[in-house]
Amino acid sequence: MTGAVTRGLLVALLIATPALLLPGVAAQTSQITLLFALLAAVLTFVEYNSTLPSLVEFRNAPPFNRLRFVALFFTVFLICAILRGKTDPTLLTGALTALGTIIGNAMDFPYSPVRLLILMLPEDAEGELVRTLRTAAGLAYLISLCAMTSFLLLVRVLGWPTRHGAFNVWVNLPRFDPTGGGDALQRLQRDARFNIAFGFLLPFIIPAVVKSAADLVDPISIADPQTLIWTVSAWAFLPASMIMRGIAMARIAVMIEDRRRRVHAEAEDGLQAA
């Protein structure tokens, strides 16, 4: 229960971070943010306090979800720090802005995800908004790349998830039904390839979808700081999360294949001994 409460409070803190750090947040916006933070905290507590699987995948296979949470939290926090530095500059906000500007400029080339994200802005967007979006995008993309690289090292070098004991497919993959038809191994491999491929394409798809939707409805202006924070965070986090999920499912597929091979070899040895 203590772990579930801690996770719930951390999720609430993540959602409330922009309202806590950004200056001049309206009272109505703060109330709505507080409501969403409390709701997310309750849902997280219920999920992790239960012994039965529900929605969260890899719940008992740390540090998969911890790594994703840390990546999202740092993305939101650092973009908030950059935006806060425009009114209350500090040495930290200046360093983060410089780092994000360097990475954003390096990745802002034709047909790149950062360029497509900038093209999502209206044609009459101010230059300061363009530079801010490029800086935030560069920093968010760096964090997502670090998260994916860290998880890949955990899988390849440290042998995730076997170092934490037996892997329970029912608890850690609640939405995967091994008896749903077809070979479970092939389905895992197919889902892994789909998640990795779609994760690579998502940074290109999200700006295009938002730009197309802008022609049909009147969207919330991305010039709003909180809108910019969550848009850029989702743009960087969702693809990284899907790629990490694909890597994890591919790893589970390898474990199942190795287990089948060992069982088959033991059965053959038993027949030869008999």
Describe this structure in words.
- The chain is mostly helical and 274 residues long.
- The protein has a domain at 68-161 and 199-273.
- Helix content is 74%, strand content 0%.
- The protein has helices at 2-21, 27-49, 64-84, 91-107, 113-119, 127-156, 169-172, 184-214, 225-273.
- The radius of gyration is 22 Å and the shape is globular.
- 30% of the residues are buried.
Task: Summarize, please.
By secondary structure, this protein is mainly α. It has helices spanning about 1-20, 25-50, 65-85, 90-105, 115-120, 125-155, 170, 185-215, 225-274.
| Strand runs, count | 0
Binned, the helix content reads over 70%
Give start-end ranges of low-pLDDT stretches. Answer: none
Spatial separation of the terminal alpha carbons:
52 Å
Number of helices: 9
Keywords: Membrane, Transmembrane, Transmembrane helix
